Amino acid sequence: xxxxxxxxxxxxxxxxxxxxxxxxxxxxxxxxxxxxxxxxxxxxxxxxxxxxxxxxxxxxxxxxxxxxxxxxxxxxxxxxxxxxxxxxxxxxxxxxxxxxxxxxxxxxxxxxxxxxxxxxxxxxxxxxxxxxxxxxxxxxxxxxxxxxxxxxxxxxxxxxxxxxxxxxxxxxxxxxxxxxxxxxxxxxxxxxxxxxxxxxxxxxxxxxxxxxxxxxxxxxxxxxxxxxxxxxxxxxxxx
Length: 239
Fold this sequence. Notes:
The chain has 239 residues and is an alpha/beta fold. It has one domain: Class I glutamine amidotransferase (GATase) domain (Rossmann fold), CATH 3.40.50.880. It contains seven helices and eleven strands. The chain has helices spanning 23-29, 49-61, 76-82, 93-102, 106-114, 124-127, 175-182; strands spanning 4-8, 35-39, 66-69, 86-88, 119-122, 156-158, 190-192, 198-202, 205-209, 214-217, 224-226. The strands form two sheets. It has a seven-stranded mixed beta sheet with strand order 3-2-4-5-1-8-9. The protein has a four-stranded mixed beta sheet with strand order 6-7-10-11, with no helix packed on it. Strand 6, helix 7 (175-182) and strand 7 (190-192) form a beta-alpha-beta unit. The radius of gyration is 17 Å and the shape is globular. The mean pLDDT is 95.
């Protein structure tokens, strides 16, 4: 498969503007491309699809890439089939996945991306690149008919991964605990991406980029830490 993906934990880190922390990686992903199709379906309220697209457009135009929103087309499937590249932004993962199915975009996106079309996701857009959305942090504010996602990679992702604060008095479950609960019922690997981190996927290769380590969870095993720039190709065929 000719995968060419950039899966980012978050669109904005502390002290940076929208997508600024991933500028070099985005430029690398889109080398030779002049346009990108933005899918703004993840935002459940507070910002319209047009306003969300305008925010993405402002960022990409600085890099010489034009942006169109999929909602601007009468036929979203045709828009995906003709796109040079696709970016799915963050928001609520359940809202996003429901809209992808409602607009019949799951199969066209999977087909194009697995054939080599560059794909970029942040937060919810990174969640839906995985096998399922079962490791999202979002509340299920809408009903989805299935948790099955785009399956561009055969593992799950947990963006915004946080380590427990040793000084906190909070007694709720940690992110590690939640992922362990997931593995009681699901086998696929899960990678926890800390803020500012991202995965670069080329073909069957996976490399961690960004300033932080990432935590990999395999069913029934102790979590593993991987350093930035380390290759974690085994995620593509762990099971």
